[in-house]
User: Fold this.
Amino acid sequence: MAVSPPQKILIVDDDADMATALKLYLEEEGYDTSVANDGKTALEMMLGGNRFSQVLLDISMPNLDGITVLKLLRDSNCDASVIMMSGHGSEDLAVECMKNGAEDYISKPFAMADLLQRIKRARNHRLTLIEKMRLEQEKEDFYLMLSHDLKNPMTAVIGSIDIIREGRLGPVNEEQIEYLQSAIDSCNEVITMINNLLDIRRFEAGKMPLAIRHCNLEEIIRKVVAQFSQTAEHDGIRLSLNLDSSLPDIAIDQKAMVRIMGNLLGNSLKFTPLGGEIVVTCDYFENSLDTQRLRIPIYASIPKHFSEITRFVRIRVRDSGIGIPSQELKRIFDRYEQYRSGSGREQGGAGLGLAFCKWAVESFDGVIWAESENGKGSEIIILLPCSE
Assistant:
């Protein structure tokens, strides 16, 4: 049975006596140790191909202090766990070390037995963190694969089906056209789910590119409603639009707003039965925020200083569908959550559309919530501030 080599520890301390004492003690405990008497030498050893698993790093050293060395090690993606040592410790100094990537902090003088425990704990912590980072990278790679390896083929499939549907490869009858259109709609739904997933991930990582500027909200809403009118008519659903005549321009990202409205209408169409109705309303009002009058629920995230704003645009998408029980209203804006009644004409989905809407609306400093009664339809309300 192969024996694992001893862990390599680098001791970084300009106090030669302390460094020697640590070296002797740790080697008696079975560790392979080396010593650097300043920060510059430590960096050369750590970044020069030596595979140290841990570093005992003194903070107070001339020329290059321990915290600077720590920052440089973490900037270089060094995998070694680091325990900071100091003879002039304080709580603020310990916090600073941990914020910069140290696994632990110990004040001199310390008991060697305590140090041993910390060395084992620090290494386990670092290995756990490395594994977490590896899994995060796998997630990023997966999202990248979704973006390129799935969306591109789906787009090609839609194009090919569309050529057949239009009769460019030979005549097709009405029934065949309907089936082909259904296939296109399903492909587009998959692409929408992929886009929602990718953008939610970007929002969470703080990397969602948004071009927030003043836009004509009336034009955006009319355009999206028009896109869904044919589908609603095909499904036997009345889709109507009520717009205030005095809607101001508001500061939003136009593409994100189109996606928000598309997600809301697509969701309503899924859960509204034949002969049902969907009404989109958008109005403008000048008033101080009254959460009780507007029935904004506790779970809705109200932005800071929202109560100081006096001009709002309100968008409502109401349907006569199956409705949602009151206890489910908060959860429908979470990822992968979708209320399923087990009846009606609702279709499958990843439960990402409303989650995207929540992230996007909140990026506009707005509020989104739902009102519903089970069996009596639902209404999604968005409240957006207007620039003063």
Summary: Residues 112-165 form the longest helix (54 residues). The two ends are 75 Å apart (CA to CA). Confidence is low (pLDDT under 50) at residues 342-346.
